[in-house]
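Lab notebook, page 48
Experiment: co-folding of the full assembly
Goal: obtain a model of how the components sit together before planning crosslinking
Operator: M.T.
Materials (sequences as entered):
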Amino acid sequence: MNSQILRGHIVHAPKLGQLEIIENGCMLLEDGRIAGIWEKLPDAYKDVPQVDYSDRLIMQSFCDMHLHAPQYPMLGMGMDLPLIEWLNTYTFKTESRFADTEYAREVYRRLARELVDNGTTRVCAFSSLHLESTMILMEEFEKAGISGYVGKVNMDRNGSPELQETIENSIRDTYAWLDRCDPKANIKPILTPRFTPSCTNELMAALGKIAAEKHLYVQSHLSENTSEIAWVGDLHPDCPQYWDTYAKYGLWNDHTVMAHCVHSDQRERDAIKAHNVVVAHCPDSNVNLISGIAPIRQMLTEGIWVTLGSDIAGGAILPMMGVIAEAIRSSKCKRISSNWTTDFLSVAEGYYLGTTSGAHYFGGGDGFAKGDRLHAVVVDDRKYIDTARLSVRERFERAIYRAQTADIVAVYGEGKKIK
Amino acid sequence: MNSQILRGHIVHAPKLGQLEIIENGCMLLEDGRIAGIWEKLPDAYKDVPQVDYSDRLIMQSFCDMHLHAPQYPMLGMGMDLPLIEWLNTYTFKTESRFADTEYAREVYRRLARELVDNGTTRVCAFSSLHLESTMILMEEFEKAGISGYVGKVNMDRNGSPELQETIENSIRDTYAWLDRCDPKANIKPILTPRFTPSCTNELMAALGKIAAEKHLYVQSHLSENTSEIAWVGDLHPDCPQYWDTYAKYGLWNDHTVMAHCVHSDQRERDAIKAHNVVVAHCPDSNVNLISGIAPIRQMLTEGIWVTLGSDIAGGAILPMMGVIAEAIRSSKCKRISSNWTTDFLSVAEGYYLGTTSGAHYFGGGDGFAKGDRLHAVVVDDRKYIDTARLSVRERFERAIYRAQTADIVAVYGEGKKIK
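Observation: model returned without errors.
Model output:
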């Protein structure tokens, strides 16, 4: 067994709003799994090799529960357009280039690198509709040490001439893709109907059948934008609400990830809760595309499982520390627009949503849980001014608001050092 | 005369919403002043020494029109508290340490460095109430190559035991400070009553008198938060509105800078416009402290002079590119909360507010105006993915959303290279 001790200021969030800090702490890893955390190293382990991060912060790494990998080349651009226009003039064009596998290799290699460099170690990602490029995305994530789920996108209507499949190709490629996925890999497949307007009923039904047959999770979009919701209503006069269009075809299941849920009302939220559907809140994207501000505090009060997503490239912020800060800001905007009646997210709560809440999706425990493979970032904040003898709690908060890529000096994913 | 040519992709904003891009352009500097911008260098200048920034972006540098220098040590912290609580438990304590001049030297030297490193070359800054530390702040800004205004804060009521002056000391120190300011320096004094609740009527009257006597500009806070406004109402039953409390004492003048103006209604906005008062919009601070979202689009439509401020440390973002992005996000939140009836700020508009609009305060022209001393940043974005053959326009937008400190590879202030 390979044992190792990490030393540093350990900061994790076992529960929503609860921050645990072990100043000058020690963490024992056994074969990459957390075997113990102490303020003072027990004598029994004093001969175990140590990595001393000394005055640096050892924090949980981040789970990005919604991102569009093929939109990475347009990250931080096109932000003056609303959702449907943005999709048609920018996004579909960008995604269509992933018919080219060499292009995909280059983009996905760089995306994987930037995710790891910023401490994102687990993802729930959309690929494009292209089978080969989806395989490449999975390979590049795996190679970089990222784990989680990647989905080949299904879309057989309302795309663009360059970006659409026939239903036959969509189903055939989905089966072919699933056959080629390595069941032992850390990157696993997830079914990914783009969103209801992109999929015929027949395709939705076929995907629902595959999900049941192969015990696969599902990810998609829900109630992001009011005109999108109206469009779904037109397409499905039989369904009272947007979520019903997924439920009708067996895609609304335990662990289904639904991005956005900005305009989910009480009935839709009840359905989310009842089916253990996971909300991937994408605060930056929702503001950039002027979709709205999701009622996150309300969802948390109702016991809904809320996680965070960068939603590259509707979101312009790839580092999840930035996404956490935007989630907090969004919740404050919600408080303002509710005439100061809704509570905002504290920094500790935002951190939990970006770490532990997502980790649960991948089978992880609460915070740095014993038995879990280590997912962590090491933050070196010593270049920032500290004339005030800051507490570790304060330095943690400052890291969320201020840390840049270069400040993340080490990253662990699945128990291995990957930066 | 010292002549020089800079080459690169030149991006500037002469007017609100108007972006001018000179791809592979040339800029002639004569003694640090802009003497010409061309797509192709005229033959007459072909022997002038050149600095070739080649494929990098040469953009206007930024004006931070509201920041609290002594709050720098708490930047990115205390964000879970609302304004008045945050002032009392965090801010006043932090500022009181500037009685210590050695401490001030260390903090202000580092602040100046971080501002320049992030491309802020002109400021309108609050110091603390301390005379000696205010001199040190001015020196450190000057040394770093920053220009603009710094104000010794006046506050003789409602402070804390560690942070308050008597009216006599306040007036005496203000005169002493003004006497010591170097009239030839690039950092000039500005009168700075903290805000109405911090100043007795007698102090306000004395400062109004000094402003008139010495032809000084004034900066303060206005209508940031609803309980603050109510408090001002209690303190000044004679004044119909917050701004009247400044106007009454001769502090509401042409070029008075008022930070925030979040809750300024039509009458207050009319008074802002009529007196050529400058609004320093601080989007990040207003959201962090849950103050509200200022009606910036409305103000622009009404012809009000709007600029941007980081409001360190109510704002957690020092780099003005980040503040510009937050101004855009805030305007989008305003659009959402107005049921999609208010226009948001485009990227070009946000950039104008963070550059040219502030530059006007310091006598600068429109964009890279002929005759002006150069204020510029050079952004090296070549490490970001460019598989899509991005236009300079797109790269400019990406820089606003994504550039980190390390990507700003050169900075010019007052015609000199300062990074």
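Interpretation: Chain A has a mean pLDDT of 97.
Next step: discuss with group before ordering constructs.
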